[in-house]
Each structure stands twice: as C-alpha cells, then as structure tokens.
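Ligand-bound model needed. S-adenosylmethionine.
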Amino acid sequence: MVFEMLNMLGIKKAQTVLDPFCGGGTTLLATSEKGVNSVGYDIMPFAVFVTNAKRHQPKVEEIEKIEKRFTDSLLFVKNGKARFDVETIHKAFTPSVLSFLVTLRHEIGEIRNSRVRNFFLLAFLRTADFASIAKKDGGFLRITNEGVTNKRKVFDYFKKTLGEMKRDIFIPGIRFTGNSTAHLGDSRSFQDEGDYDAVISSPPYPNRHDYTRVYLLEEVLGFGDNNSKIKKLRYAVPHLRFGQV
Ligand SMILES: C[S@@+](CC[C@H](N)C(=O)[O-])C[C@H]1O[C@@H](n2cnc3c(N)ncnc32)[C@H](O)[C@@H]1O
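Prediction:
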C-alpha cells in the first residue's frame, strides 16, 4: 500500500516522507526500500524502538558473537521476587517466568553495541508476548488460559526467535537504501522544521485502541515504565478522539 501511495504521489528516490504516527514502521521501512527518505514520530517508546530496530539491523557475525553469552546458566540465576507496580505484569506471568524474563532483560541491557542490543530486545519482547497469558485482543489485553509457565520453554522460544530474526536479515532482493529514523514525539505538539514531500500515515484508531494497554507488557518489561509513566502516556494518547472533534 505504501508503494502504491508513493507511486500515486509521484515521490522519487531521495525525496522525504513524514509519518507522524509511525507505529511499527511500515511507512519507514517501505519508503526506505524504495530509496525514499523518511522521518517518523510516535508517542509510544515501544513503537519508536521497534521501527528503529527493524530498520537498523546489526551484522549476523555481531549477533552470533553475543549469542554465545545466552547460555542455560541464565535459567539458574536467582534474583529474588520480581516487583513491578503495574499489577497486570504479575497477572500475565508466573513468578518464575517473570523472574527469568527480568534476568534475560538484564543480560540484554549489558550488550554494548546498540544495534545488537536492540535486536536482542526485539526478540525478548516477542518472547514476553508469547509467554504471557495476557494476549492482545483488539484494543486491549485479555487474560486467557494460553501462555507459558515453564521458563525453559520461554528460553527456547527466545533462541528460536533470534534464529528466525537472523534469517530475516537476508530477505533476497530487499535492501534499505533510503535514510529513515523514528523519533519519540507527540504529533500534536512536536517542533519539526523538516521539509517533507509527502505525509503517509495510518493514524490511531479513534476511540478504540488504547496503545498503553495493548503494549503494556512491552513498555514495562522493555523500557522500565512504571505506573505513573503509563498513566501519563495514557492521558496523552486518548485526546485523539475524533468523536469529540
Ligand atoms: C494505527 S497505529 C500506526 C501503525 C503503523 N502504520 C504501523 O506500521 O505499525 C497508530 C500509532 O499512532 C501512535 N499515536 C497515538 N497517539 C499519538 C500522538 N499523539 N502522537 C504520536 N503518535 C501517536 C500510536 O502509538 C500508534 O503506534
């Protein structure tokens, strides 16, 4: 769809597109694939992270060097009971899985190379989503009877995900040549003096999606958000209620 819009709008290589609600980065990745530059903004740290992590990937050799550190010994680290002031986190995981996720997150935080660290963090967040009994359901998280209670299975999934992501780096025929970066920002108030040739975006779903609920696990486990930060974000996002305009 982004390719079609670029065609329709007559956007050529080296021109620049803005996406003020970039989410997981579809516009930024697609434009970059066509050699078009792009700038994205999103209010959720998780969305900005995902876009940049997908766009700026490390080399496979760099990943493999670090992967060796992620051995079974992590399964036996004792770090006490994990405490978060966001209650849903404790509902979403068993104490042992949560404690293991905290260990894994800590180990990822120790990786110096930021591209490699982000790559591992992306795999970690996919793993947390897989392990959680709180599943994304439209605009909310719903407690289900799916999810994983065994930390060994969680670790296996993490390693499998890393393997799949490594293979994805080499999708034949796809090369990102346009410059693109996502920034954290509220599209209603950011100051940007950029000169854009087009705006391509998929804006937030009015009145339906509370992104702070849908991406709660990612925000808390990945970016250390606590209750008060989540609430602040929550108040910032729902003002985009088109029904009230
Ligand atoms: C429909 S999604 C975008 C989907 C995106 N095209 C993708 O590829 O994932 C809308 C995005 O708008 C973001 N958003 C909501 N309110 C915002 C605001 N005030 N400023 C910037 N981004 C906002 C949400 O966090 C969400 O990621």
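Residues 58-168+210-237 form one domain.
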